[in-house]
Design goal:
Length: about 240
């Protein structure tokens, strides 16, 4: 959640603290908002094509006499929903990809929280293979790279080599707050480069700390649409 409050020194300019995609769902903003404008959501359809799309911009009206801020509205760049993605892409997966979408998961420095949620997508409850998605051991067999964690400096070269080994048209998905923006570890520190997009071109972002299995499925379905869009020109 990002709060945008008019700067009192310059009413025409907004102050905008914090980078996009850095939320780790600590809920401090929920308890700290006097207007109760921030709430906890159970929404899992959260995949986005850009980090900016992950931001929630809240606007407040400032009383010039008292300086009190009153919540006005929230602006969101909405992404595709899980049901929309599934309905639109199921036919493509079965008919055009032959149920052969292969995913290589890469841990670039994760705490293992995202890995646990990714593993949960393979259980009987979520069953990612019903969408024709399979996890593979080699990037040479992969259509999608699913990258977790802030990219540590020890993993930067390995991540680049993994990306180079994946065949075109490859798609990169950044998983979790750390993968999306560096999370609590930040960007450009002594130990970590930061978010995945500091090293590789990212096509889909899945926020959360960690994201729920449903959110990961949503992100993979969105990634499948990105890959299909790249495959079409090659076929033509």
């Amino acid at each position: 959640m990002r709060a945008v409050v008019p700067d009192r020194r310059d009413p025409g300019r907004d102050t905008c603290p914090g980078p996009d995609a850095a939320c780790i769902q600590c809920r401090q903003c929920v308890t700290g908002c006097p207007e109760q404008a921030v709430t906890v959501s159970s929404d899992v359809e959260v995949a986005a094509y850009t980090r900016r799309q992950l931001a929630r911009t809240a606007s407040f009206d400032v009383d010039p006499m008292t300086g009190r801020c009153t919540f006005s509205r929230v602006e969101v760049e909405a992404g595709p929903s899980l049901s929309e993605s599934a309905a639109r892409l199921r036919e493509r997966i079965c008919g055009r990809l032959g149920r052969s979408l292969h995913v290589r998961q890469v841990d670039a420095g994760s705490c293992n929280g995202c890995e646990l949620e990714i593993a949960a997508t393979t259980n009987p409850l979520y069953d990612l293979e019903r969408f024709g998605i399979h996890l593979v051991a080699s990037p040479r067999h992969a259509d999608v790279l699913l990258v977790t964690g802030p990219v540590t400096r020890n993993m930067e070269i390995a991540l680049r080599r993994t990306y180079e080994a994946a065949p075109e048209p490859r798609v990169v998905v950044a998983v979790g707050a750390c993968g999306s923006s560096g999370g609590i570890f930040g960007e450009g520190t002594y130990a970590a480069v930061g978010g995945v997009d500091r090293v590789l071109p990212v096509d889909v972002y899945i926020p959360g700390c960690p994201p729920r299995p449903q959110a990961i499925l949503n992100g993979l379905l969105v990634a499948m649409g990105v890959r299909e869009a790249r495959v079409e020109p090659l076929r033509g």
